[in-house]
Each structure stands twice: as structure tokens, then as C-alpha cells.
Amino acid sequence: MGKYAIYGAGSLGTVLGAYITKNGGTVELINRNRAHVAALNEKGATITGTVNMTVPVKAITPDEMQGEYDVIFVDPPYQIGLADRALKQIGSHPVLAKNGVVVLECSREETKAEEEGNLILRRRYDYGTVSVLIYVRKDRED
């Protein structure tokens, strides 16, 4: 099994990470907010609504990323520049596996770089007002 991360683990990322973990997957939740990260590590991810559950999760800040990830899902809030920050962080550090992918969700209106550090945009999918961008390493072999 590969190494996975959800970068920008706010509400949606935390819920997704809790379900992946609950069902046997291993994922790191990445968030800039140290208090949020500490709370997730101490108390777990509490999901309420149609289900009520608390799942122990692993949360880190971007500067704590170590090793190489096979998949990094980036889901920051739209229109406030966090997607660009995340791409810069990921593209400037050796955290993506050679054949790994970065899946970035953003507003269709946002312009994203074709290249960022060691990343290059491979594909873009537009769905209504949302875009999903796939970045890979420049030295990817396929």
C-alpha cells in the first residue's frame, strides 16, 4: 500500500481522512493550523451528522512532511491562495514519489501554474465551477 496525504485537511479533508482510516487505509492529514493538528492527534477526528464517530488519525503540519507520498490530495479553501502555497511547498521539497501524483481541487476561475518547482501539470478536468488538476514530478517515467 502506498503513502497518502490530504493537504488542507479542514472539514472535508478531515472527514475524508477519517473514513479512509476507519476502513483500514493510512493517510496523513496536513494542515497549517497547529492547534487543529494537535487536536486531531490528541482527540481524533470527530464526525457528526448522518453518522457519529471519532476516529484516531495522524495529522501533521506541512513542515513535518517526511518521505515520499504516492498521492497527495490538495483541497484548500478556494480563492485565498492556499492552493498556490501548497503547490510551492510540495514542488520545492522531495515529498512526492517519482511516480506519485498531486490531485488539486480548486475553483475553475483560479489560474494555476503549469510548473511549480519539480512539479508539472499533467491534466486538468473542469466540472462546473470546480477544476481538478493532476500534477506529477518532472522526472516521472511513463
- The string of secondary-structure elements, in order, is EHEHEEEEHEEEE
Biggest sheet layout: 8 strands, mixed
Distance between the termini: 20 Å
Number of domains: 2
- The number of helical elements comes to 3
Which of globular, elongated, flat, extended, rod-shaped describes the shape? Answer: globular
Look at the structure and give the CATH class of the largest domain: Alpha Beta
Query: Strand order across the biggest sheet?
Result: 5-2-1-6-7-10-9-8
Structure overview:
The protein has 142 residues and is of the alpha/beta class. The chain folds into two domains: 59 residues, no CATH class; 76 residues, Vaccinia Virus protein VP39 (Rossmann fold, 3-Layer(aba) Sandwich), CATH 3.40.50. It has three helices and ten strands; from the N terminus they run βαβαββββαββββ. It has an eight-stranded mixed β-sheet. A hairpin with a 5-residue loop joins strand 3 and strand 4. The longest helix has 12 residues.
Task: Name the descriptors.
2 domains; eight-stranded mixed sheet; alpha/beta; Rossmann fold; 142 residues
